[in-house]
Design brief:
The protein is mainly β and 352 residues long. It has helices at residues 47-52, 182-185; strands spanning 11-15, 27-29, 33-38, 41-46, 57-58, 70-78, 81-88, 91-96, 114-116, 121-124, 128-135, 141-147, 151-157, 162-169, 176-180, 200-205, 209-217, 220-228, 233-239, 242-247, 251-256, 261-267, 273-278, 284-289, 293-298, 313-319, 325-331, 337-342, 347-351. It has a single domain (66-322), classed as Methylamine Dehydrogenase, Chain H. The strands form seven sheets. The protein has a five-stranded antiparallel sheet, with no helix packed on it. A four-stranded antiparallel sheet has the order 1-29-28-27. The chain is globular.
């Protein structure tokens, strides 16, 4: 596979409206669409139009309640199906890729964080942040949503419909910031020839704690281990035997699933790190920061007994002058294009 090679001064620009909100991780990518959190609405950008530099579209269902702040929107791929999960101050809403709310998702009655609401939504006592797909050892598929209580809602998907949500206490005392799994980093499935994704779930919180759970089955998420990094978690990713932890101080830490320790740390940015995305088919990830810098990195390796590990490498770096970057995502053919957005700017840039 040829290396990623971007030209810093060559990129398309899709037109956005200005937003007063300073979000983090507010850009998400699916096979054909990008989603941008834009204050109290989400803008949907067809990837083909973004690559051509066209204007974006609003997904109407997300704009009916203009005073509902959106914390995160996430494209979740489960097999051949694509969904949008929208996190607001009080709800986690699940839509299909055309913007229609699903009509067969309910919260488990009696759950301390989630209460039954209208069809297609989970009503939360505390806001949601952090969404990912996950798989279990017995080949079941899930959508997982983090909450400000420090718990995770786990919703099984059988290929046709979602089950009721179960709440998982994952041992956090602080609000969750993000969730990750290897199947989610691959956008639902590993590429041909790659090893099957490991069945685990990682959660990171605003106190810097990261917890890894083994997903045995729909009702068996067993604790594996936890580590703590030096600052609140900004974003999580996973690939192979490592969990990638990006914290707000600009440091990216790598946690070995086998060694159960932080085996590598790097200072990726000098200012507030705002977003990270893992390439679905390459061992690479992208980060961006409030200081306007963005970068694409090659994954490190830990090395075994008597073996030297490999340090992370920088494959590409650029700066958006006067831009406070808030979101980054791989997209396009082969997922090899790189999209980025900035606070209070009127464009979405895509490096090709």
């Amino acid at each position: 596979m040829p290396p990623l090679a971007y030209v810093a001064d060559r990129h398309t620009k899709a037109t956005l409206a200005e937003t007063p909100s300073l979000s983090r991780n507010n850009l998400t990518a699916g096979p054909s669409l990008l989603g941008v959190v834009h204050n109290a609405q989400t803008l949907m950008v067809p990837v083909a139009r973004a690559l051509a530099g066209d204007a974006v579209e609003k997904l109407p269902i997300f704009t009916k309640d203009g005073n509902r702040e959106i914390f995160q929107a996430k494209v979740v791929v489960l097999g051949a199906d694509v969904f949008f999960v929208l996190c607001t101050a009080t709800k986690a809403l699940v839509y299909d890729q055309k913007g229609y709310m699903l009509r067969h998702s309910r919260a488990v009655p009696g759950s301390p964080s989630a209460v039954a609401g209208p069809s297609g939504e989970f009503s939360l006592v505390n806001h949601a942040r952090g969404v990912c797909s996950a798989c279990s050892a017995d080949a079941r598929a899930f959508v997982c949503v983090g909450t400000a209580r420090g718990s995770v809602l786990v919703v099984e998907y059988d290929g046709a419909r979602f089950a009721d949500a179960a709440e998982l206490d994952v041992g956090h005392d602080a609000p969750l910031a993000d969730l990750a799994s290897e199947v989610d980093s691959h956008r639902g499935a590993a590429p041909p020839g790659a090893a099957a994704p490991k069945p685990f779930l990682a959660s990171g919180d605003e106190a810097g704690q990261v917890v890894v759970w083994n997903a045995r089955s729909a009702d068996r998420f067993e604790p594996s281990f936890s580590v703590r990094v030096g600052a609140p978690v900004a974003a999580l990713g996973a690939r192979g035997d490592a969990v990638i932890v990006a914290d707000v101080s600009g440091v990216v830490s790598f946690v070995g699933l086998t060694s159960q320790r932080v085996f590598c740390e790097m200072q990726a940015h000098s200012r507030y790190l705002s977003a990270m995305d893992v390439h679905p088919t390459r061992d690479a990830f992208a980060t961006c920061a409030e200081d306007g810098t963005l970068a694409v990195w090659g994954m490190p390796s830990e090395g075994g007994a008597g073996e030297a590990g490999k340090d992370p490498t920088c494959a590409f770096a650029d700066a958006w002058e006067d831009g406070m970057l808030t979101g980054v995502a791989f997209c396009g053919e082969g997922w090899d294009c790189l999209a980025v957005v900035a606070h209070d700017e009127t464009e979405l840039r895509v490096y090709q």
